[in-house]
Write a structure and sequence with these properties.
The structure is a single chain. This protein is of the alpha+beta class and about 190 residues long. It has a domain of about 100 residues: Immunoglobulin-like (Sandwich), CATH 2.60.40. Strands 1, 2, 3, 4, 5, 6, 7, 8 and 9 form a nine-stranded mixed beta sheet that branches. A hairpin with a 5-residue loop joins β4 and β5. The termini are far apart.
Amino acid sequence: MRFTAMNRGQRGKLAMATAALGIGLLSVTGCGYINPQQTSEQYAASDGTLADLGPLQLRNIMIISDGEDKPGRIVGAVYNSSSEDAVLTITGVDGAQVQVPVKKNSHALLDGATQAILSKAGGRPGSLVELSISEDATNESAKFKVPVLDGTIVDYKEYLPTSPETPGSETTAPEPTPEPTPATDAGH
């Protein structure tokens, strides 16, 4: 194989192509150098919000309610990373309060099985409501805002708190359906 010497024009083209390739590679790989890595940042990926309070981590917290002055169910998860049991106290509007016990190195799901219902939601569906939270292990407290949602989204409808019946109200049982009578063979 025989190599021939490059003339001045060919060397210039080769230098320009090499420089363009180098700039292209730097621009593609340099993005990770100057921009933060998004997967390393925690954020609320759903409708609820998150907060950390001492050893407790509150995730995807929201209130499900039909209205501002109606009961509101707190939905989400509370994780306890400490080696001791803890009790989370959530205080809403007008002193409405809920306590959530969380075992050590465990979690509590506020999904309907654990009743966490405030007597008043404190905000219309679609608004943000400020809640006060505190935990008994380290006596830390904080405030954070959570969204109020209603049953418009089908997945949240089952979490709407049912209001207890008021005294004097009655529920009526559905009327039984009449039994069909057997048909007679009228001359057939």
